[in-house]
Amino acid sequence: MPRPFVNWSGSLTFTPSGYAEPADEDEVRELVLRARESGDTLRPVGSGHSSSPLVRTDGTLVSLHRMVGVIDKAGDQATVRGGSRLKELGEGLYKAGLAMENLGDVDYQSIAGATATGTHGTGLGFGNLSTQVAEVRLVTGTGEVLDVSATSNSELLPAARLSLGVLGVVTQLTLDLEPSYELRRRSWCAPIEWTLDHLAELQHTNRNIDFYWYPRSDLTQIRTMNRVDGVAARSTWAARRVPEWNGWQEPRELEVGPTHDTIPQHRDLRFEEIEYMLPSEAFPACFAEVRRRILNRHRRTAGWRVLVRSIAADDIWLSNAYGRTTTTIACLHNAALPYEEYFRDMEDVFRQYGGRPHWGKKHWMTADDLRPLFPRWDDFQVARRRLDPDGVFLTPDLARLLEEA
């Protein structure tokens, strides 16, 4: 009997026709070949943290939760199974003396799902998690097992590192890592004007920095993280300090520990989220309009915060940071409250400033809207049709996202 699927926030619910939990790559191949022969669709699903309908299907939902763990380590690289959750993966890598160079705010996701949707952390020197992927192994829509790396099918690497799950089922990834290290997390509150005035300085003097803006109080919470050993990220951060100011709240040390413990934060309350990636030069004007609209139109109902982060540019075809240094604005909203009117109003602002939507979060853009925003859009479509000629992984939601009207 098919069982309903419900995502982390509770806003996405559907019942697939089947649910599969393959234990190895051979079983994945059998699923793909069977679906191709019958005309069924397969959708790989990670942890279900995403709030966009990327995984919604009336076909078979494929979970890799039985395909987890580290397969091999060599130098500063590790090959891991696609279903590995970031939390357990971080713990396993730490025991091996290794760490991912950056992480996002949540460690609930699987590594394949997080990289396939462009999950990111913050810091001028760091791309999204997909930039840490050196090799992808996947089962394509024809049932072929394909290795994609700088030395094997290299022309597909910019597509496979962030693929939305439409090139194939990612069974394993090889990650570029660093020797393990510890971070010191600090936090303090400040007026929004002070934060915006000093944002560039904070970004250039801290390894990781983001801030929350709280519409009800019009204050911010600034969060920084720096290596305990003083090693700078990308050799561009010369200091770790708070800019001089008249004082509001003294910075306090929250935690010192390995990256997988200090960067992700536990979430008890469920929320919906819309996040857009903006060219960094457009951020000041965009944020000013976001703030104006929230204060004038949504302050009474928008009780949750707005999160601002930064991402380095990359060359991954469907990456939201492709070709440009990026600043992100995310609006969070309690999952128990209506969100669409608020989020659509914010999306209108983001689009005016050249924003690209986060693939795993709420948005209402279609292929016609998206194609002009991604310079290598057509190249990705060529790769998709090559690896999945029969549309085994293409659901109606993904068709609206990827195929122009």
TrEMBL record:
The keyword Repressor does not apply. The keyword Oxidoreductase applies. One of its GO terms (biological process) is L-ascorbic acid biosynthetic process. Residues 12-180 form the FAD-binding PCMH-type domain. GO terms for cellular component: membrane. InterPro entries: ALO_C (IPR007173), FAD-bd_PCMH (IPR016166), FAD-bd_PCMH-like_sf (IPR036318), FAD-bd_PCMH_sub1 (IPR016167), FAD-bd_PCMH_sub2 (IPR016169), FAD_lactone_oxidase-like (IPR010031), Oxid_FAD_bind_N (IPR006094), Oxy_OxRdtase_FAD_BS (IPR006093). Keywords: Ascorbate biosynthesis, Oxidoreductase. SUPFAM superfamilies: FAD-binding/transporter-associated domain-like. GO terms for molecular function: D-arabinono-1,4-lactone oxidase activity; FAD binding. Pathway: Cofactor biosynthesis; L-ascorbate biosynthesis. Belongs to the oxygen-dependent FAD-linked oxidoreductase family. This is FAD-binding protein. It comes from Verrucosispora sioxanthis.
